[in-house]
Amino acid sequence: MQAAERVSAPAKCWSCGQEVANGQPFCSSCAKVQPPRQAGYFDMFDLPQKLNLDVQALEKQFYRYSRKLHPDVHARASQQEQEWSLSQASLLNDAYRTLKNPLERTKYLLKLEGVQFEDERGPGNTNPSKVPAGLLEEVFELNMQLEELRQNQKLGEDDPQLRRDLEGAKDHFAAQLNLLDEQIRSLWSAWDAAWEQSDEAKKTAAKEAMTALLQRRSYLQNLVRDVSETLKES
Length: 234
Ligand SMILES: [Zn+2]
What we know:
Elements: E1 11-12, E2 19-20, H1 41-44, H2 55-69, H3 79-100, H4 102-112, H5 136-155, H6 160-196, H7 200-233
Antiparallel strand pairs: 1-2
């Protein structure tokens, strides 16, 4: 395990001079709050960069840290320490929110590993070149139906069968989303094992597989949202 740990120089505690592990909000020797440093979310919780994570343990640690960073605890500390506590608390919130959510955790880890995700907020079905493999026909059909529904809305007409079809398509894609989540989860162990063995080839394979699934997921999520929104207007 040692070989795979992130190599970053530990800082020295400003107060007692002992070494403080990268990202740790407190000195383990004198318990003083430390200035915030550039550190990853995993480092803040002293966690290995793996995806199977004990969320209850993470939550416990988060509350433990949060109590220690609470402004009341530092009311008599120096101005500087009070400021550090506030910034550490805000960093800790971000780290906790990201790590406890399975999808956010996966995406965050992939970003640490250099994966860049495109803007996920854009409309899902405007660019046909981005339709994931194997979905082209379904998406084409769906877009035709959506277009028809929008046309109906403009003309003040109603086609109950069309709306039922679109509801069905929405459920179908939503079910695919759930399936994708399961597939992503099933790759966590592959990543974790590769990480423990420092097996770069296996890490890359797991990383690429997860990225492809996440991109497909993001596409489908946009699609489901488009359908929901259009249906709501009718
Ligand atoms: Zn110290």
